[in-house]
Amino acid sequence: MGSGEFPAFLFLFLEAVGKGFMKVLVVGSGGRDHAIAWKFAQSRRVKKVYVAHGNAGISRTAQCVDVQAPEAIVDFAEKERIDLTFVGPEKPLSAGIVDLFESRGLAIIGPDRRASRLESSKCDTKVMLRKLGIPVPEFAVFSDPDQARAYVRSVGYPVVVKADGLAAGKGSLVCDDVADAEAAIHEIMEAKIFGEAGSRVDIEKRLYGRELSFFCFSDGYSLAPMVAAQDYKRAYDNDQGKNTGGMGSYSPHPWLDEALVRTIMERVAEPLIQGIREKYEIFYRGVLYLGLMLVQEGTAITPYVLEINIRLGDPEAQVILPRLETDLVDVCEAILAGRLKEVPLRWDPRYRLCLIAVSGRTKGKKGWYKGYPDRYKIGVPIYGLDTVDPGCLVFHSGTGWGDDGELITTGGRVFGIVSTGETLEEARAFAYREMEKVTFEGMYYRKDIGRE
Length: 452
Ligand code: GLY
Prior knowledge:
This protein folds into four domains: 9-113, Rossmann fold (3-Layer(aba) Sandwich), CATH 3.40.50; 138-205, ATP-grasp fold, A domain (Dna Ligase, domain 1), CATH 3.30.1490.20; 208-342, 2-Layer Sandwich (D-amino Acid Aminotransferase, Chain A, domain 1); 351-444, Glycinamide Ribonucleotide Synthetase, Chain A, domain 4 (Alpha-Beta Complex), CATH 3.90.600.10. The protein has 13 helices and 25 strands. Strand 22 and strand 23 (407-409) form a beta hairpin. The protein is of the alpha+beta class. It starts with 7 loop residues before the first helix and ends in an 8-residue tail after the last strand. The strands form seven sheets. Strands 12, 15, 18, 21, 24 and 25 form a six-stranded antiparallel β-sheet that branches. The protein has a five-stranded parallel β-sheet with strand order 3-2-1-4-5. The chain has a four-stranded antiparallel β-sheet with strand order 6-9-7-8, sandwiched between helices. It has helices at residues 8-19, 31-41, 70-79, 90-94, 97-103, 117-120, 122-131, 145-155, 178-190, 258-280, 316-320, 328-337, 424-435; strands spanning 22-28, 46-53, 63-65, 84-87, 108-109, 139-142, 159-163, 172-174, 201-205, 210-219, 223-225, 230-231, 234-236, 240-243, 248-251, 285-297, 300-309, 351-359, 362-364, 367-369, 393-396, 399-401, 407-409, 413-421, 443-444. Residues 169, 231, 245-246, 309, 313-314, 316 line the site of glycine.
């Protein structure tokens, strides 16, 4: 859809906005989705926030509705006359929830199914980026594990082996040597630890530099960069252990200055959105998440694209959205109308820091569970969350209600505590102090988030 067109759902949406009593639906059930629902609940233009399907903690912020399949969600939105829907996770986007909403004339924020391939196929995306002249590491794509093994033996440098499809942020295995790379190929392609997502792999030269998650809103033509966040992907302190969905985050980022934002916009984000629209007829509307490796080359920094995601990151969103002062409804309205550049984003300069509490090592019915991201126990009561200082935000990822109405764990990542501070150190001390008030069996969190 071009910016010149003005579809019927937009009139309905703007009408509701004008009266100031919008109903908003957030799709998702994790900490990011809690943060999105919380942000919409701050808007004076929103009367009610629904979340499909949410969790116990989200039900304190919004009305959770027990619908999960895209068809059931669109039926709910139509019946409830939802004015605006915002999709948090990648799975419903890749399943085509946006196409479904648009076919029924309902306003929704997120890329459509075609655009969602940017995340759901790492291999096709890398090929496309290379053709568009956007910096990517040297890479090759394989669907045969023997050919993949022969390749890693031949290249003579360390690699990263990536499952092609969706793997909940855990599909990239960073390898130190050939033995590691062969093991990764076996795990992904033969043992199928990520299921069919590992039928193909993208094998990339491992780059050394500074890793950065960079987010923009896109209306398909123009882009609005967000503030950056530092994410901590590894399970244990000092970046040890397996990759997880994210163990903590903070924002502002120490080295994202205006010049670097300009470099990333000019070398990656703008040519990408324009290139996919003009050369591949992919119209990208929603949140664009660039996973970058910044490499110093001579006097310049080159932002290499490691991955593209089609959504806000988690836990990055938990520190970015609390800093956004602009009404999220205004941003969504501008995205839908194709006039994003008319809505400058305003940001709170103070620090936010997020600690994620996960289900760690416990003794289960069948012996010891290693804990997230490996096997973990669920259903254990959580104590002390209500005693956390109200100056912190608590976003829930994996919580539910037990038989006696008590708060229990239901997932690997359980909740995040987000603090505010004038400095990173102040925010860090505040979050760690509050985290100590909470306990559950096997609770684990990293102790080095925000430590410089
Ligand atoms: N924190 C990484 C992700 O959301 O994929």
